[in-house]
Amino acid sequence: MSNALAIAAVTNYLRILLHNRLSDDVPGVDVSTRPPDRARNGDTGEQVNLFLYHTAINTAWRNRDIPWRVRPGEVGHPPLPLNLYYLLTAYSGEDEAGISQDPNPPQLLGSYRLLGQAMGILHDHPLLDPVQINNALPDADRDAFPFDQVEKVRISPQPLNLEEMSKIWSGFQTNYRPSAAYEVSVVLIESQRPRRAALPVLRRGPEDRGVETVLGSSPILEEIRRPAGARYGFQLGDTVELIGRSLVGEIVAVHLTHPLLAPLELPPQPNSTADRLIIDLPDNGTAVNWAAGFYSVTVSNGATGETARRSNALPLPLSPQVTDIAPNPATPDGSGSVTLTVQCAPRVLPEQRVRLLLGEREIPAQPHPAPTDSLIFEIADAPLGDFVVRLRVDGVDSLPVRTTPTGLIFDPAQTVTIEA
After folding, report:
1. Which of 28, 88, 92, 278 has the most CB atoms around it within 10 Å of its CB?
2. Do 306 and 330 belong together in one domain?
3. What range defines the domain where residue 243 resides?
4. 281: Cβ–Cβ under 8 A, 6 or more apart, which residues?
């Protein structure tokens, strides 16, 4: 497998490749992998230095499994894919001349010739075979950590402008030398975390019947509303209309989901149609498993023995109802505070956020560690006058109005008088 030794294995193979090819033309050449500030290290002969100055994540392999290592049905961990960036520098002679001329035989020598030869070698070997990299490892490393990654390693020139090259050499705090930069990719370091392999599937579905395909269109919800002429808002005891398409079937159910309650289910009325389902919310006396707040409403339908089709979800804000406020009228105490006890329906759960809206003020409820229909509010510096109050539970307000034969009026159960 390709492991943490991969970086050293690739660098070692590049060093051996340059040394073997350069030795044919420049006997005694030294190929090192030291930082540029310590590359010469007292040497005065012909030398090529290959230094790994940067690594980066290869984004193309970032979340991919290694082919043939993770089988279908198994869950593996992506490898660490790296791009390696090398700086290639050539040195020649004690004075490190860029160009020197040897009269016997007449020829051009120097670091420029050596740099060109090294660049030509890398140009002629753009792909590194994993087998060759593995064979270049010492015996002990090859036996314990073989390099056998699937992807071949590619060598590409890395164009750097003068400013980028200057920053690199400034970081080494040494004199600049003519150099060439290369990108070597991709080097894969496999994760050491174990893969998870699931057991074979013995049966697909009940009695090995396979996938059950349901034909026909699924129900679609488009709107949730109150019947024509009814007051706005939703409370327990209300009739609700669900508007949509393909809502009927042999078996039809309306599902209501509250984040703090078990899922609820209501049957539609017999006079429902394919584009309108009518449901009745339970009243305060029977809705023991309900709470105010936002519900997610879906519709399911289908035939007996088939998998039911379920619609999209729409929100339904269920408002709390204020049934009594005491004392009323209320009188502030010596510090100007008033304590009100508000009776409500349905019960408020301990996890719910409750506020009382009094005029322009928002008063939090006292802690209630158990489900309760009686909430206590302490109003500091209570204002004097007549007020219409609203109870807000998880962002849904009570409805402060009531419908009468003469029109809408404020609900007397939600009015309070604070007098001196």
Report:
1. 92
2. no
3. 220-318
4. 234, 235, 236, 237, 238, 239, 240, 266, 287, 318
Q: Residues 78, 52: contact at Cβ < 8 Å?
A: no
Kindly report the pTM of this predicted structure: 0.53
Strand, coil or helix: what is 215?
Answer: coil
> CA 227 to CA 381: how far, in whole Å?
43
Report strand pairing: 179-189 vs 80-91: antiparallel
Q: Nearest 5°: phi and psi at 74?
A: -95, 155
Residues 123-167 have pLDDT tens digits of 999 999 888 898 888 888 887 788 878 788 999 999 998 899 999
Instruction: Verify cis geometry, omega within 30 degrees of 0, for the bond prior to 105.
Output: yes
Q: How far apart are CA 41 and CA 258, in angstroms?
A: 74
Burial class (CB in 10 A: 0-12, 13-18, 19+), 158: middle
Residues 224 and 164 in one domain: no
Q: Indicate the number of domains in the chain.
A: 3
Q: What is the pLDDT of residue 150?
A: 76
Q: What is the pLDDT of residues 349-366, one digit of tens each?
A: 999 999 999 988 899 999
The C-alpha atoms of residue 90 and residue 164 are separated, in whole angstroms, by: 19
| Best CA proximity match to 343, nearest among 364, 363, 368, 325 | 325
- Residues 391 and 249: their CA atoms lie apart, in Å, by 39
Residue 1 in this model has a pLDDT that exceeds 50: no
